[in-house]
Amino acid sequence: MSFRASWSLVLRKGGLGIRGIHSPGSTAHSKEKMSPYTNYHAQRSYPMPDEPFCAELNAEQQALKEKEKGSWTQLSHAEKVALYRLQFHQSFAEMNRRSNEWKTVMGCVFFFFGFTVFPKKPITLTDEWKAQQLQRILDMKGNPVQGLASRWDYERKEWKK
Fold it and tell me: Residue span of the signal peptide, if any (predicted)?
């Protein structure tokens, strides 16, 4: 029996099921929160998310939350930072920090640009073609008042100075 056939048999008999595969620990439509991080979403344009970054607290974090209810002058700097990290994932400075992703993107662009094979240059861009085209314009005396023909000396066969 092939892998695909055995897998479909497991799914038909109600083994894991699609929801059991895609969601860790609960069904896809359950209202339960995944621990310890929930539907946290903070952006520079919306810095105050609806839920705290860390929803389920361990004993040490709960003790810190209780200490938070007292005087803030008794809290150390490290405890204040820990309380901030329970509520928010990043500070504004961390959110606004530039990433180096542009270097990767430009590196990939130049890498693939380097391996691109260009077709041969069209014949109209060769120097011979351009010289013949210029001679044809001069022979036809095209635009003799202000154009190329006005700057060409037809008697000496050279450009006017």
Answer: none
Q: For CA atoms 67, 72, 75, 77, give the dihedral sign.
A: positive
Residue 52's CB is within 10 A of a number of other CB atoms, namely 14
Distance CA 86, CA 56 (A): 10
Enter the pTM of the model.
Answer: 0.40
pLDDT tens-place string over residues 63-82: 999 999 999 898 999 999 99
Mean pLDDT score of the chain, rounded to an integer?
A: 77
With contact defined as beta carbons under 8 Å apart, do 68 and 74 qualify?
A: no
User: CA 137 from chain center: how many Å?
Assistant: 51
In angstroms, rounded to a whole number, what is the distance separating the alpha carbons of residues 144 and 131?
A: 19
Instruction: Let me know how many helices (H) and strands (E) the chain has, helices first.
Output: 7, 2
Q: Which residues pair with 153 in a beta bridge?
A: 158
